[in-house]
Specification:
Elements: E1 2-9, H1 14-24, E2 31-35, E3 38-42, E4 49-57, E5 60-68, H2 76-90, H3 108-112, H4 117-123, H5 129-148, E6 157-159, E7 168-173, H6 177-187, E8 192-195, E9 207-209, H7 211-220, H8 225-231, E10 232-235, E11 238-242, E12 257-258, E13 265-267, H9 269-282, E14 286-288, E15 291-298, E16 302-308, E17 313-324, H10 331-337, E18 344-354, E19 365-370, E20 382-387, E21 393-398, E22 401-402, H11 411-425, E23 434-445, E24 457-458, E25 461-463, H12 478-498, H13 504-507, H14 515-519, H15 521-525, H16 539-553, H17 556-563, H18 569-582, H19 586-594, H20 596-619, H21 623-634, H22 639-654
Parallel strand pairs: 6-15, 7-8, 7-17, 8-14, 11-19, 17-25
Antiparallel strand pairs: 1-5, 2-3, 3-4, 4-5, 9-13, 10-13, 11-12, 15-16, 16-17, 18-21, 18-22, 18-23, 19-20, 20-21, 24-25
């Protein structure tokens, strides 16, 4: 018996494919005989025959063709190619869109029940399911609008001659990542206003991090060690990485990679937000929740127009600087970058649940990255599983996706997948689980050629977090980026505010850029199936297993540094060379998936990383100390030069993900509660 073909047919209707094989497909030769799972092709005078069968997994259909017998059948290759072409014609890619709905006439559940039945069924089990499903629908519609019309984004930033005295120094838009940054700046004595569209403290995402990463916030002085311990929902003892390899060639199989100190701390995100909100208010800051941003007029101040959603009342507020922390739904981020906003995105869905049998999953462990099947409807689906408080578990399902106007990436389609295939991933009965809250969002990515490749600022306006889309291709998202870079961003923004350096040319220097992360975007592209293109179903898993198999052989410290984006030029090149030797076909696979244009873009990014690594190696031992020594002589006399030098000083270590705390917050009054309630 020999396998001749392995295909993914992008439809969840496996019965339709089976019926087509048995009743409609006409083979150029051979006698077709129907079987339970497909058909057989028998040939007169031949001892060999072809067996064609289909099966369902991950809400899609897979097909294999085997030859029974040792001798090839007549025109064997031509027959297999004919079958593949016929399948592609009858079962093409289809990218469904959510229906247009009017929530004044029907509920979100009734409106979506026909297209997303399992999503509606299980969202009704969440405590705030109707509100959360409405938000998921809204987020997808906002994302699709931006992807469909990147050249004409909705204009919300206007240059106007606004002459007014700012009421605040800083106005933040977005209360998730925004409140962390806002609390720090309020502690430095600035007048801060936080504007949040949701009721403050609500989150549709959970956050995981390691102790060493969160230590940046303790060293900065935002949290005490006791407060940090109070924010921990769970801490697991080990985390696993394993990708499906049943269909991979032998050189592309890998053992389980263990990383005990990667994302091993589950943070109680809502408790974290509440504690940051307390710190913000105690430092004199204000929070306007359930308030939506409308537009901003930039002049001598940032004049921000908002609307209070429950009452419909419009408000206007002015600040010296507007900080965009609205994430991927930010209309500001789309406008600032015009036709090139985000290059990639991870549509991510999931849920916090309890009630999973302990024999199915031991809550002392995390599943950091896992796939249980091959490419599904043009996407390589990847799971994450993290223990939470008590017997709670947080599940995520996501895929790396190249932004395309015909195929923007769908949260609702992903949720239909999630509720269908969760029992495949971890054996369970969905009706016996307790559904605590959904977790969803779009995690964007931007392929940077250098540190100035993306616009993150306008006069008196700057973007942080996911709005700036500066994150890792593996596991490092907006939260991790902000935590790591908060000391740097705080010091640089404080310097800009002190000296009124609030023009775009100055603010664009205040960014969470890492040259080592920028060069890994090729790795991200290797996990994306280009829209409309059919790849061998096992291709992405084969690439992932090649890289993670090499990581498993490395020293644990090297592996941790790579996954946490703290790797240098030599380790990256050594592992890349090892991957090419282990799997020589890897370079050809990348060429097919990436295209020559993007490969040349990556070469430019790699050259930038190489130059950066060389220059920073020369500067690391003396430049940061020298810059601090020059501060008394330069800062007040030449503030623009000082800001540039300070930004360059931080880049020396932050380019490799190595945080450095040079400014510490003063303690708040002792009346502050030590533990978040």
């Amino acid at each position: 018996m020999q396998e001749l073909s392995y295909l993914e047919i992008p439809t969840p209707n496996t019965d339709a494919v089976r019926h087509w094989l048995q009743s409609s497909y006409i083979s150029p030769s051979g006698q077709k005989v129907s079987t339970t799972s497909g058909c057989r092709l028998q040939f007169s005078g031949q001892s060999s025959e072809l067996a064609i069968f289909v099966w369902s997994l991950q809400r899609t259909t897979y097909l294999k063709v085997f030859r029974w017998g040792s001798a090839p059948v007549p025109q064997e290759k031509k027959l297999v190619n004919h079958l593949e072409q016929a399948l592609r014609t009858h079962f093409p890619y289809y990218y469904p869109k959510p229906p247009k709905i009017d929530l004044e006439k029907e509920s979100i559940f009734n409106a979506l029940a026909k297209d997303y039945p399992r999503t509606v069924q299980y969202f009704q089990r969440f405590p705030n399911g109707e509100y959360d499903l409405t938000r998921a629908y809204w987020w997808e519609q906002r994302w699709r609008e931006g992807v469909r019309h990147p050249q004409q984004p909705r204009q919300v930033v206007f240059a106007q001659t606004v002459s007014s005295t700012p009421e605040y120094d800083l106005v933040y838009l977005g209360g998730a990542l925004g409140v962390i940054h806002a609390a720090v700046m309020a502690r430095l004595g600035y007048r801060v206003l936080l504007i949040e569209r949701l009721p403050f403290g609500r989150m549709n995402r959970e956050w995981n991090i390691s102790r060493s990463e969160f230590a940046n916030l303790i060293d900065l002085g935002l949290f005490t060690p006791a407060e940090f311990e109070s924010l921990i929902a769970s801490e697991y003892v080990d985390g696993f990485h394993k990708f499906f390899d049943a269909n991979n060639p032998s050189q592309c199989k890998a053992p389980v990679l263990k990383t005990p100190t990667v994302l091993n701390i589950a943070i109680d995100s809502e408790r974290l937000l509440r504690l940051c909100g307390e710190k913000l208010r105690q430092a004199g800051g204000e929070i306007w929740d359930q308030t939506e941003f409308q537009r901003v007029d930039i002049g001598e101040a940032a004049c921000v127009q908002v609307i209070h959603l429950p009452s419909g009342a419009e408000k206007t507020v002015t600040g010296r600087l507007l900080v965009d922390a609205m994430g991927t739904a930010s209309p500001i981020a789309w406008q600032l970058n015009g036709g090139r906003s985000f290059d990639s995105v991870c549509p991510t869905v999931g849920a916090v649940i309890s009630g999973l049998d302990r024999e199915v999953w031991d809550a002392r462990y995390g599943d950091v990255l896992n796939s249980h099947g091959d490419i599904s409807r043009g996407r390589q689906l990847i799971w994450e599983l993290f223990p939470g408080q008590g017997d709670e578990l947080t599940f995520y399902l996501f895929h790396y996706h190249q932004v395309h106007p015909d195929n923007p990436g769908s949260l609702l389609e992903m949720y239909e997948d999630f509720f269908t295939i969760l029992p495949e991933y971890r054996r369970c009965d969905l009706d016996n689980l307790i559904w605590i809250k959904p977790t969803f969002g779009y995690i964007p990515g931007h392929f940077s050629l250098d540190s100035c490749d993306r616009t993150i600022a306008f006069d008196r306006l700057i973007a942080i977090g996911d709005s700036a889309s500066l994150q890792s291709p593996l596991i490092f998202t907006g939260f991790g980026s902000l935590v790591r870079n908060l000391p740097r961003l705080t010091d640089l923004l404080d310097t800009a505010l002190k000296h009124d350096l609030l023009q775009a040319q100055h603010l664009n220097q205040i960014r969470a850029y890492q040259s080592n992360v920028a060069v890994t975007w090729l790795f991200s592209r290797g996990m994306m199936v280009p829209t409309g293109q059919h790849l061998p179903p096992e291709r992405v898993n084969a690439m992932l297993n090649t890289f993670f198999g090499i990581l498993e052989e490395e020293d644990p410290a090297v592996t941790e540094a790579f996954i946490k984006d703290r790797f240098g030029w030599l380790p990256l090149n050594r592992m890349a060379l090892k991957a090419a030797i282990t799997n020589p076909a890897l370079l050809l696979w990348i060429w097919v998936m990436v295209s020559s244009k993007d490969l040349f873009r990556w070469l430019a990014s790699y050259w930038s990383f190489t130059v950066d690594a060389f220059v920073n190696a020369l500067l690391r031992s003396w430049f940061p100390q020298t810059v601090r020594w020059l501060q008394p002589h330069l800062e007040n006399r030449f503030p623009q030069l000082w800001l540039s030098l300070l930004a360059r000083s931080y880049a020396v270590t932050y380019s490799l993900g190595q945080a450095r705390v040079e400014q510490v917050l003063k303690p708040q009054p002792k009346s502050e509660p030590a533990i978040a309630k």
